[in-house]
Write a structure and sequence with these properties.
292 residues; mainly alpha; three-stranded parallel beta sheet; 30% helix
């Protein structure tokens, strides 16, 4: 007995310590489940797969993500080529914009910006997913009839021509993510009781676009924009309406300041929804900060 005990102890001296990493089941203690003979007996029937995988087949090329092909689940918009790697602009067609106006979800007698489009509840924007505004596409440009003062973040030449042909005005403007968060749900932002932030200037790779008069950038020279309006009318063969003689001239020519986010509200103001008052900064230092 003593020899057996000594042999066991000597063996333990050279064996590794017992831990989670070296615990194993005894050989033969577990048996693999046999293949069933019923409808759930196949290799692919019990793991939640359906369709072609249940028939022990492989899905078609391009359908790895489900029933929709890859190019439909992850679309690529070539309208803003060069920006799509850093900023995304969810599309809104001119057909849908006309429907929103016809159904009185958008008042075309007032300036329309991103806040107006978001307040319809039919256009969603997620700034945390690199979405920086709305991209107006030319679908329905031939039936667009509204005369509107519109501000978007991206627009093609066909869209600009369709808006200006009807006597409207279109502007492309940039908003930084902090400003977009305030615009996504303006009521919730005002309930926080914090001052309206000032809009930041575009980054270096986007300032060229928003300073281009042909793109109707909000930082472009107004005189050059007037020249480009005439050039575009001659290119597409339509007579440019005279905005000066329009009864809605004041509405059409209303513009935001480059630091402004909401129409009629300036940076630094605090909107009190409960008391229905607006608090404005009085100190010169604050006025200079929000104006610069």
């Amino acid at each position: 007995m003593s020899n057996t005990t000594e042999k066991a102890l000597s063996l333990l001296r050279y064996l590794p310590r017992v831990c989670i990493g070296n615990i194993r089941d005894n050989p033969g203690s577990k048996q693999r489940s046999k293949r069933g003979r019923a409808q759930h007996g196949g290799d692919y029937h019990g793991d939640g797969n359906k369709g072609s995988k249940a028939r022990q087949n492989f899905t078609r090329l391009g359908y790895e993500t489900g029933n929709n092909p890859f190019y439909l689940r992850f679309p690529w918009e070539p309208y803003y080529k060069g920006h799509h790697l850093k900023r995304e602009y969810p599309p809104l067609s001119m057909l849908d914009l006309q429907k929103l106006i016809d159904t009185n979800r958008i008042d075309s007698t007032k300036p329309v910006d991103l806040v107006t489009i978001l307040n319809t509840g039919l256009f969603k924007l997620f700034p945390d997913q690199r979405q920086f505004g709305v991209q107006l596409t030319d679908e329905g440009a031939d039936i667009f009839e509204a005369k509107i003062n519109l501000e978007v973040q991206w627009a093609s030449e066909n869209v600009i021509a369709a808006i200006e042909r009807r006597g409207g005005i279109i502007t492309t403007a940039y908003y930084d993510p902090h400003s977009l968060q305030a615009m996504v749900n303006s009521k919730k932002f005002f309930e926080r009781g914090i001052p309206i932030p000032r809009r930041m200037m575009p980054p270096p790779d986007a300032i060229e676009y928003y300073s281009d008069a042909s793109k109707r950038g909000y930082l472009a020279d107004p005189d050059k924009i007037s020249e480009e309006r005439l050039v575009l009318a001659q290119k597409y063969g339509y007579t440019l309406p005279k905005i000066e003689d329009d009864p809605q001239y004041d509405m059409l020519m209303e513009r935001k300041d480059p630091r402004q986010i909401f129409y009629g509200l300036h940076p630094g103001w605090v909107v009190n929804l409960k008391d229905k008052v607006i608090l404005k900064p009085l100190e010169e230092e604050l006025k200079e900060y929000y104006a610069s």
